[in-house]
């Protein structure tokens, strides 16, 4: 599926004229998303850590305090995993269980 097709499926909003929203810019990386946001032509919902990790002039990170919790899944192939991936999996499991690093 093309990026544009996937992006279009994320939108369920409708303009006042009854047509689906028109996608004006397509970002191919998180850095590009931030550039669009800083330019005033984009918005993004990011994880809480983005406030510190990606802080820069022209960006505001506004907490969404009334959003329902979201479930995130990590899918892995069965079998042997490289050590860095195994470490990442362990970090995910620790975070999910409430353990601190």
Describe the protein:
It is a single chain. With 101 residues, this protein is mainly alpha-helical. It has one domain. The protein contains four helices and no strands. The protein has helices spanning 3-10, 30-38, 50-53, 83-97. The mean pLDDT is 81.
Please give a handful of descriptors for the protein shown.
mainly alpha; extended; DNA binding; DNA-binding; LysR_subst-bd; 101 residues; DNA-binding transcriptional LysR family regulator
Provide a quick synopsis of the model:
The chain contains 4 helices and no strands. By secondary structure, it is mainly α.
Low-confidence stretches: none
Span between termini: 37 Å
Please estimate the helix content: 25-40%
Secondary-structure element pattern, one letter each: HHHH
Proportion in β-strands: under 5%
User: What is the helix tally?
Assistant: 4
Could you report the average pLDDT, rounded to the nearest whole number? 81
What value does the Rg take, in angstroms?
A: 18 Å
The dominant shape is extended
Secondary structural class: mainly alpha
**How many beta-strand elements?**
0
Sketch the major β-sheet. Answer: none
Q: What's the number of domains?
A: 1
Protein name: DNA-binding transcriptional LysR family regulator
Organism: Lipingzhangella halophila
Domain LysR substrate-binding: 10-95
Keywords: DNA-binding
């Amino acid at each position: 599926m093309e990026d544009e097709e996937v992006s279009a499926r994320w939108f369920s909003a409708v303009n006042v004229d009854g047509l689906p929203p028109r996608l004006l810019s397509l970002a191919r990386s998180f850095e590009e998303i931030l550039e669009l946001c800083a330019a005033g032509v984009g918005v993004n919902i990011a994880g809480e850590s983005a406030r510190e990790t990606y802080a820069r002039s022209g960006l505001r990170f506004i907490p969404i305090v009334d959003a329902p919790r979201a479930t995130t899944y990590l899918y892995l192939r069965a079998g042997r995993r490289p050590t860095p991936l195994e470490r990442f999996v362990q970090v995910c499991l620790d975070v999910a269980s409430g353990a601190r690093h």
